[in-house]
Amino acid sequence: MMTCQLVNDLSHAREESHFIAPPSSRHLPDTALIQEMREQKGMSDTRFGCAPFARLTLLPEVLWYDNLTGELINALRPLLASPVSESIVIDVTTIDDTVLVQLLRFLFNQAHRLSDLQLKKSDENAIRIRHISVLCQPDQEDRLKPIVNQQRAIANGMIAARRLADLPSDLCTPQFVVEDAQRLCAAFPALRCEVLDEKAIVEQGLGLLNAVGKGAHCPPRLMAIHYDGVDEGPVRCYVGKGITFDTGGLWLKEGAGMYTMKYDMCGAANVLGLMLAAAELQLPVRIMGVLALAENAIGPKAMQPGTVARACNGMTVEINNTDAEGRLVLADAMAWASQRHPQARFIIDMATLTGAVVKALGYELSGLMTQDEPLRQALTEAGKRCGDEVWSLPLDARLRKQTDSAIADLCNTPTNNAAISASAAWLLHHFCPASIPWAHLDISGTALWREQGRSVASGRPVPLLIEHLLADMA
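^ that's the sequence the OP posted. Answer follows.
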């Protein structure tokens, strides 16, 4: 449990804390050591002569205003990887607003570590950050209190998503995700869960989800999480790809490409995190989150290249590549969501869908594809405000030939291997009625945080979606 308080004076902070500030901080003592540290061009750090603090770190002024590259967070990561104190004090009196929300989210996210999964021996006596003191001016408190509360709830949602995604796939099966989500949602009376098992999936005509999941020993699931923050009003729908492990099916991936495929369910995990954050914030809205859960495996019943499957909206899809399974489960889940709520305010889907989006945008930007301009603008602006940014890729009828099939209504991958990310979105748009605004987020680059050759779940785009939701309610 991580606690947080706003303080106006260092005397109110806990002793033996780690004090982090810009060199211009007015709260620093006027000593020869501090003057020498202020004159350093880069980071200056000491554990000596800084009483009553256990450690004092000054980070260059420019980092506190850099709302683009996240360099303040990058500087803090190694500092907090092995903290010297359970408490930190951080001076935010002059920080940029976008950097502030990123900083708070990062600090609250320190409540989760991979060692918490208890899959590796770890030092039980290792120091953990358990308390944050946010140093601010008295006239900043009223503005900062809701920001702190929002970022704490967002971080809690991110942690739930990260923990689930980081679990090995032999543990994190479709049924495990369902049970874990039910356990987490039980803490919030406004959340209720609905689950379709493999039999109900077939009965309700979700032929694409069934095609992907039927080859695995662990059967598929469709889970809907309903949040009723108010009794009436439009429902906002979110759909997440939840491929708990992706071998590629009969279109088998190579070993190196398969290693991180337990993370192919990050879209679904982040939908869960979003729902938990919304419930913690007690937002006055109605939301439905849909998790399309399956394992894309090889087995006697595995879908074959050339299979034609029918979605719950009646459209057929020729599966010419079994490793393009994510768009299939998303398509069925989107169609199912639109049937449940034909007057939905919007549908936003998210998925670790294509490696092509990483080649196009890298690891910092999520790909955004939509034909609804107001939704595009709102998501783009929300991303800029919270530092969880998106970048638009084209989506129009010029992509039609990429999904043409001679035998079915659509094929799931372009035969010319071009415009992979946008072509996937073009397929998906057929499964959301034109009357409902829809956007697709390809989070293949952003769903993971990468450092020193290792990948762990990041919890993105939960911050983007909560920021967008807050603005959409206004």
